[in-house]
Amino acid sequence: LKLNMVKFDIVKTVKDVFEIEQWQAEERNISLKIVNPPPKPVFVKGDRNRIMEVLINLIINGIKYGKKQGYVHVSFHDLEDSIMVEVTDNGIGIEKKHLPRIFERFYRVDKSRSREQGGTGLGLSIVKHIIEAHNQSINVRSVIDQGTTFNFTIEKAK
Ligand code: ATP
Ligand code: MG
To answer: Taking the model in full, what pTM does it have?
Structure first.
């Protein structure tokens, strides 16, 4: 994967993705919000288009597997050399036994496969691929019926 590394504002990028996803969120009555929005730009280094692709996938998942009237919240956490971005929904959650496999290509949890929402099961494998190409990490935690949080890191720009 060839990356086009640039310096960009990750907060602005999330806002741009929210705008793109707004109609899908509204269709399912899900609110998109940045929690504790930083007052200033947060500059990071990465392939902006690829990081947008990551955010689009995680946020669409939050919407698709969310509950009606639910939310998808994004928050930013300042680490030593990186920024951690967390995407949290209060949706259907993922059973513990499935968690280690959701980043595999074509892997979909049965319960969601039967849902009317489409998809191929490729989204998260692409997301992981992009984050690893940046030498960063992605993690997930989830509680069935309560919700899911994905977090990934991205290098701070100097
Ligand atoms: P695609 O992203 O290719 O359109 P997809 O959403 O099914 O299809 P992934 O994004 O790779 O594929 O996700 C894999 C599976 O992990 C999903 O099918 C779903 O079962 C589960 N999953 C992913 N995100 C969430 C979430 N936020 N809440 C609950 N389940 C999730
Ligand atoms: Mg997906």
So the answer is: 0.96
The contacts of residue 128 (CB under 8 Å, 6+ apart) are: 103, 138
State whether the beta carbon of 147 lies less than 6 angstroms from ligand 1. no
Question: Rounded to whole angstroms, how far apart are CA atoms 3 and 155?
Answer: 14
Nearest-angstrom CA–CA distance, 51 and 131: 8
Mean pLDDT for each consecutive 10-residue tract of the chain (158 residues)? 97 98 95 96 98 98 91 97 98 94 90 64 96 98 96 96
Report the SS3 class of residue 70: coil
* Region of 58 on the Ramachandran plot (φ > 0 left; ψ -120 to 50 alpha; else beta): alpha
26: CB partners within 8 A, 6+ apart? none
| pLDDT tens readout for residues 82-103 | 999 999 999 999 999 999 999 9
Measure the CA–CA gap between 64 and 127, rounded to whole angstroms. Answer: 16
Q: What ipTM is given for this predicted complex?
A: 0.99
The preferred substitution site among 28, 102, 129, 140 for testing ligand 1, maximizing ligand atoms within 8 Å of CB, is 102
> Whose atoms come closest to the Cα of 106: which ligand?
1
Question: Cα separation of 32 and 71, whole Å?
Answer: 6
